[in-house]
Amino acid sequence: QVTLKESGPGILQPSQTLSLTCTFSGFSLSTYGMGVGWIRQPSGKGLEWLANIWWDDDKYYNPSLKNRLTISKDTSNNQTFLKITNVDTADTATYYCARIPSTEGIDYWGQGVMVTVSS
Amino acid sequence: DTVLTQSPALAVSPGERVSISCRASEGVNSYMHWYQQKPGQQPKLLIYKASNLASGVPARFSGSGSGTDFTLTIDPVEADDTATYFCQQSWNDPNTFGAGTKLELK
C-alpha cells in the first residue's frame, strides 16, 4: 500500500525559509525510474509543479522558482525534502508530495499540508 | 511554458456523456494525464499518457488525443463525478497543469 504524507511548519513569516518533509511507504526511491515530486495549490486555484527528484538523484526544478528551491532525499528513511527560501504571501498554498513512476503521471498523492505565509 | 487550456465549467445530467477538453499551446506527444479533484481532497489520477486507465478507475472514464488536443470522456456520468478535472503534461519542461474544468451535475 503506497502512502505519502507531508509535514511542514503551518505558518511562517515573509523572508523565512520553508522546509517541507514527505514521508512515504509502499515503494522505494531506489527503484529504477521512480520519482517523487512536489506540487502546490493556492486555495481555490490551480496546481503548480515545483520540483522532482528521481531514483538516480537527478533533480528537476520549475524554472520560475528554481533559484529558491532545493529538493533532496533520504532513501534509507523513505523521505524527500523541499526547501523554499525567501517566502512571501504568494507562497501560501497547500503543498503536495506525490509519487511519479517514470512517465505514467502522478499515481499517488499525499493529503497535502497547508502553509500560510503571513507577517 | 506549455499552456494547457480547459473550459472552466460544464453541467450535465446523470446518465449523460460528457467530454472535457484540454488544448496544449505546443505538442506534448502523448504525455497528457488527467486527474479528478474533489473539494478538500488531493487529486486522483484517472488517465495517464492520454488514453491509459489508471488502476482502480472505472471504465466509464476514457481518454483520447495526441499532439495538442486531448479529451477526457465520462460515459455515463454519475452523481459522484462532481469534481474539478485537471489535465497535466509531462513532455515539455516545466511540467504544467490546466486550470481545471469544474463538472457540475444538473
How is the topology of this model organized?
The complex is a heterodimer of chains A (119) and B (106).
Chain A: E1 3-7, E2 11-12, E3 18-25, E4 34-41, E5 48-54, E6 59-61, E7 69-74, E8 79-84, E9 93-101, E10 108-109, E11 113-117
Parallel strand pairs in A: 2-11
Antiparallel strand pairs in A: 1-3, 3-8, 4-5, 4-9, 5-6, 7-8, 9-10, 9-11
Chain B: E1 4-5, E2 9-12, E3 18-24, E4 32-37, E5 44-48, E6 52-53, E7 61-66, E8 69-74, E9 83-89, E10 96-97, E11 101-105
Parallel strand pairs in B: 2-11
Antiparallel strand pairs in B: 1-3, 3-8, 4-5, 4-9, 5-6, 7-8, 9-10, 9-11
Task: Summarize the model shown.
The complex is a heterodimer of chains A (119) and B (106). With 119 residues, chain A is mainly β.
Rounded Rg of chain B:
13 Å
Number of helices of chain A: 0
Helix content of chain A: under 10%
How do the helices and strands follow one another from N- to C-terminus of chain A? EEEEEEEEEEE
Largest contact between protein chains?
A: A-B, 19 and 25 residues
- Structural class estimated from helices and strands of chain A: mainly beta
Provide the residue-averaged pLDDT of chain B: 96
Question: Low-confidence spans of chain B: pLDDT under 50, at least 5 residues?
Answer: none
pLDDT < 50 runs, ≥5 residues of chain A:
none
Shape of chain A: globular
What's the helix count of chain B?
Answer: 0
Shape summary of chain B:
globular
Largest sheet of chain A: 7 strands, mixed
**Percent of residues in helices of chain B:** under 10%
Description:
The complex is a heterodimer of chains A (119) and B (106). Chain A has 119 residues and is mainly β. Helices cover 0% and strands 51% of the residues of chain A. Chain A has no helices and eleven strands. Chain A is globular. The mean pLDDT of chain A is 95. By secondary structure, chain B is mostly beta strands. Chain B has no helices and eleven strands. Chain B has strands at 4-5, 9-12, 18-24, 32-37, 44-48, 52-53, 61-66, 69-74, 83-89, 96-97, 101-105. In chain B, strands 2, 4, 5, 6, 9, 10 and 11 form a seven-stranded mixed sheet that branches. A four-stranded antiparallel sheet of chain B has the order 1-3-8-7, with no helix packed on it. In chain B, strand 9 and strand 10 (96-97) form a beta hairpin. Chain B is globular, with a radius of gyration of 13 Å. The mean pLDDT of chain B is 96. The interface between A and B is medium-sized, with 19 and 25 residues.
